[in-house]
Amino acid sequence: MKTVEFEEHKLSKLSFGTVQLGLDYGISNSRGKPTQESANEIINYLIQNDINSFDTAVAYGNSEEVLGQALKKQEKVNIVSKVKSDLFMGDLEKIVHESLVRLSTNKLFALLLHDSELLSAWNDKHQAKVTLLQEQGLINYFGVSIYTSEEFDRAIKNPDIKVIQIPFNLFDQRAINDKWFKKAEKANKLIFIRSLFLQGLFFMKTDQLTGNLIESVPYLEEVHTLCNKLNLSIAEFAMAYVDSVTSSSVILFGCDTLDQAKENVQSYNNLPVIEQNILDFINVKFSDIPEYIVNPGQWSL
Fold first, then answer.
1. What is the pLDDT of residues 110-161, one digit of tens each?
2. Which whole-number Å values give the CA distances from 145 to 65, 82, 149, 151, 165, in the listed order?
3. Neighbouring residues of 107: CB distance < 8 A, sequence distance ≥ 6
4. 267 to 9, 203, 225, 234, 263: CA distances (angstroms)
5. How does pLDDT run across 25-58, given as a tens digit for each residue?
6. For every residue of the chain, which 3-state class applies, written as one string?
7. What is the rounded CA–CA span in Å between residue 270 and residue 21?
8. Would you say 269 and 236 are in contact if contact means Cβ atoms under 8 Å apart?
9. CA distances from 174 to 23, 181, 240, 272 (A)
10. What span, in angstroms and rounded, lies between the C-alpha atoms of 110 and 241?
């Protein structure tokens, strides 16, 4: 498993996103969330295959608790959790302590804002909350999950933010076009990439799509064409694309079965590097995709 080094920390290039452990999540998910026993099997497999990074959130149902049960007695793992702005402005120390108990750990690799509402009005009071958590040894880093280029630029300029979680995939080209990776490297910020499979849209059959997602059909057909040309599965193609673009970012992936976990990890460990001319073609071909396809919050099903 490849690794990403950030300051004194070494994280696995793949990080397991655990929203599916606590919620029925993803347009292509027909099984619902896994049982605790299934979650344990998934987490054990990932750890045995050198994945040491896990992403969760207070808002992900009982994901923190399920992850914590699966990680009991596991050391040297890096856990990122997230809180929404309203919780951040409350008794943050108590909220983080409660998360740590659920997660069966004594420290988070990073605590992220689940939204960026506070960034435009960030002040000394917010900074003091972050500093207190770090001084008490409850978190290593603070960060934010962003959705827009404006939010990204605010995060880059904020000295308290060291970790930025961004959406990036075949259909969402903003990280390239707006130079997010280059800006983050220059500012010494660590990037976590989410929405690798666009909440499962890439795996949907085109005749299953409804609402405004019907307009994604031509783009999905182009993905299938490229997969055939490169002799890759859709999952392999989506991972290989993101991995070929950036070597210094952590990539989040999700699954709800052990078989999916095995497929993702084994596929990642054998990914080809996509040639630059193909990367350039993808960037041109998919740069004009409407936001209501790229942004799951705007899907009408």
1. 999 999 999 999 999 999 999 999 999 999 999 999 999 999 999 999 999 9
2. 21, 8, 12, 9, 4
3. 100, 137, 138, 139, 140
4. 25, 15, 19, 11, 6
5. 655 445 678 999 999 999 999 999 999 999 999 9
6. CCEEEECCEEEECEEEECHHHHCCCCCCCCCCCCCHHHHHHHHHHHHHCCCCEEECCCCCCCHHHHHHHHCCCCCCCEEEEEECHHHHCCCHHHHHHHHHHHCCCCCEEEEEECCCCCHHHCCHHHHHHHHHHHHCCCEEEEEEECCCHHHHHHHHHCCCCCEEEEECCCCCCHHHHCCHHHHHHHCCCEEEEECCCHHHHHHCCHHHCCHHHHHHHHHHHHHHHHHHHHCCCHHHHHHHHHHHHCCCCEEEECCCCHHHHHHHHHHHHCCCCCCHHHHHHHHHHHCCCCHHHHCHHHCCC
7. 26
8. no
9. 28, 10, 18, 23
10. 26
* CA pair distance 183, 189, nearest whole angstrom: 8
Q: Please tell me the predicted confidence (pLDDT) of residue 246.
A: 92
- At position 105, the amino acid (one-letter code) is T
Instruction: Give the residue from 56, 53, 73, 74 showing the smallest Cα distance to 65.
Output: 56
Torsion angle in degrees (nearest 10) through CA of 110, 116, 122, 128: -30
Q: Report the 10 Å Cβ neighbour count for 103.
A: 24
Sorted by where each starts, the structural domains of the chain and their CATH numbers stand as: 9-200+247-271 (3.20.20.100)
Residue from 28, 29, 31, 32 nearest 203 by CA: 28
Residue 190 corresponds to which tokens in the numbers above?
Answer: 């660590």
Task: Give 196's contacts (C-beta < 8 A, 6+ positions apart).
Answer: 168, 169, 238, 239, 242, 251, 252, 253
Pairing of strands 9-12, 3-6: antiparallel
**Token digits for 247?**
């070597």
Q: Write out the two tokens for 299.
A: 């899907």
